[in-house]
Every structure is written in structure tokens, then in C-alpha cells.
Amino acid sequence: MGRQHEYLAVTLPGLEDVVRSEIEELIGGAARPVVPGKVRFLAEPEKAVELVYGIRSANRILLLVGEGKVDPSDLASVGEMAGWVEWSDYFDPNVTFAVRAERAGKHAYRSPEIAAEVGAAVVDHFLRRSGERIRANLKSPDVTVRAYVSGSVLLLGIDLVGESLHKRGYRVYQHPASLSPVVAYSLVRLTGWLAEVERDPSSPLIDPMCGGGTIPIEAALAAKRIPPGTWRRAEGWPFRLLKPFRDLPVEEILDRVDAGARPYFRPAILASDVSPKHVAGAARNAVSAGVQDSITFSVFSAEFLPERVDRIGALSTNPPYELRTGRRRDIEAAFRGMARALAEKLELKASAILGGPALPKFERAMSALRLEERRAVRYGGVDAAVLVYSRP
């Protein structure tokens, strides 16, 4: 094991505690949120590789190389802080690099200006240290530096993963309003079902509005402990170019994570939707993910859930928002049927993410249940909510 470094896990703002608990579960040690959507933790490089390959609730893992306060009215303060970072401790000047920046809050500068200022600091560092000019490549860099400015806080990190981790690789059918696997997994985790299924594999998880099947598939993959990095194993992970990771036995580390999988474990997952097309597509995605043995797919409206299931261990779903597809006259009946089934049969918790005109209808239908959590999230450019319920 090498010396410990600090890292950032990046997720949807509002799900920081899900990432924190998963990090602690996977590699041990403490993790803590620092700004919305960013969770900080300490780990050896070998543990960071395990996390890149196995984490389900994060979009990115970054090696944290700089942190400090900047002046929201002065762009030069960004460049000054970036100039303090010993960039040559992390990569060589013979690679290409790019800087991606994101900003939250009010500032006198924009994200592209932040990226340019940090990029200039990186170039200047290598000129001073080695006399070499590192080349920028904005389209397909070897190394990606990410700069996050939140209010007066600047976080500088080096991306370990490349393409976002939410792109799992198993999806062969694309639902028109597909859910991020990161959010899908988080919804399942919030119900407590993943812990319960260890004690009772027959405890059923239900998604009565399954769309393309992301929630049931992510639940099955997590229960079977199949790493989400499985579909990306052959890719050239960017962390391999970074100095703290160069001497690691990466294939051995990934083999060790793979060895923890239990593909023959069969949890009980029920997925249904009113659309035969989407159910057929979800079933194809399940086959692609290798979890078709754990999911039973059906075509029916959630309105009839009370008559179709005898037991609900937990429920997670992503109902239509009624934004892109227009108003559905049957949506309130579907919500009422779902609520009636939950009031009668729910054993653990139910979770959902939705927004738009459908959100108040859903909350009205669920009013007889106990609202455990309501998290405001911004998802897909829409103000939405993650809701968690239990039986009263």
C-alpha cells in the first residue's frame, strides 16, 4: 500500500450521505461532505482503485490536489491558488491535459474563465519545474483536471475515471426518460432493502413504473455484488498515468474486487410498467447486465399493484414527471393504487424520485404514509424531490 492521499467523490447534490456511507462500507475510513455533491475521504491508492471499480453512488472519483478560499469577484485568486499545486508530483509533462470547471454561486467570472486560469497555472508550473511546455488537448486529454468553485471554495482534483461512472455499459435499450444508475442505486439503498436481503433473500423489491429497468437492474447488481466497473475493465483508466498509481498491480486489485461477486445469488425483484415496449426493453437490459434470473417483469398499471403482489419488502420507482410526455389521465389512479398497496403491505421503506406536475399528485396520493425524508434535488435540469416513505 502507498501513502494515503485525499480524494473527492462526486455525486448528485442531495445524495452526499449515500456516497459517504458507501465509501465507508467499501474501503473503511471516514468520509465527509465538503460542498454540495462532493464527499471528501482519505485512502491509499490501492483502495482508491478498488473504489473506482466498485462504487455505485458516485459519478466521479478525483485525486484532491488543491483546496482553498478564492475571491468570487477576482478571477486572479483562482489562478493564484492553482499556482500553489505541485502538479509535477502527480503527472509528467509528456502527457496532454485539459481543465474542466464547474461553478455554483455568484461570481464575477464564468466556468470557462476558471478553466483557462487553472490551465495557465498548470502550464506555468511545468515551465518553471522542467522547462517543458505541457500540451493541452481539450477533446481527448490524457489527464483531466477538474476545478469546482462553490461560493468562495475552490476544489482542484485530477479525474481518475474518465467517462462518468454512471455509464455502466449494460444498457442496450434506451428509455426516452432513462434514470441515472447512480440515482437508481441510491433510491434502493435508501429503502434499507440491500441490508434486509442479506437476512431474507425472499424479501421482494418492487418497481411498479420500471421504464427501462434501471432500478431493478441496479438492485440486482448490488445484491449480487457485481462491480459496476465490470463493463469498463478493458478501458485505459486515466489513473494509470498518474504517479501515485503507476506501480500498482491494477489487474490483481480488480480481480480481488471481482472475487467478491456472487452471480448465483438470486434476490426477489419484481418490475412492471404499463408499457409493453418498455418492459420488453427493460428485460433486454437485464439480460445484457446478466441479472435476468433475479427480476420478474410484468405488464400492468401500478393502479392494480394491490391485487398483483402479496408482499412488498421495499419499493423504489421513478414515475413519469408529466413533462415530456404530456398529462397522463391515469397517473393519479396509478399513484393511488401504489399508495394503497404500500399502506397494506410495505415492510421496509418506499423511495421515489420525481418532479414536474406529477410531484404534488404523488405526494397527495402518499399522504396516508409516513414521510421519512424529502430531499430537494436538481436532476436532468428539473427541480425534483427524492421521497422516502414508511407505513404509519
How are the SSEs ordered, and which strands pair?
Layout: E1 5-10, H1 16-27, E2 31-35, E3 38-43, H2 45-54, E4 60-69, H3 76-83, E5 96-104, H4 111-130, E6 135-136, E7 143-150, E8 153-159, H5 181-191, H6 193-199, E9 205-207, H7 214-224, H8 250-259, E10 269-273, H9 276-289, E11 295-299, H10 305-308, E12 314-317, H11 331-345, E13 350-355, H12 358-365, E14 370-379, E15 382-390
Parallel strand pairs: 5-6, 5-7, 9-10, 9-12, 10-11, 12-13
Antiparallel strand pairs: 1-3, 1-4, 2-3, 4-8, 7-8, 13-15, 14-15
Features:
single chain, 392 residues, alpha/beta, VC0802-like, Rossmann fold, 2 domains, eight-stranded mixed sheet, seven-stranded mixed sheet, globular
Structure description:
With 392 residues, the chain is of the alpha/beta class. The chain has two domains: 5-159, VC0802-like; 181-228 and 260-390, 3-Layer(aba) Sandwich (Rossmann fold). The chain has helices spanning 16-27, 45-54, 76-83, 111-130, 181-191, 193-199, 214-224, 250-259, 276-289, 305-308, 331-345, 358-365, and strands spanning 5-10, 31-35, 38-43, 60-69, 96-104, 135-136, 143-150, 153-159, 205-207, 269-273, 295-299, 314-317, 350-355, 370-379, 382-390. The strands form two sheets. It has an eight-stranded mixed sheet with strand order 2-3-1-4-8-7-5-6. The longest helix is centred in the N-terminal third of the chain and has 20 residues, at 111-130. 47% of the residues are buried.
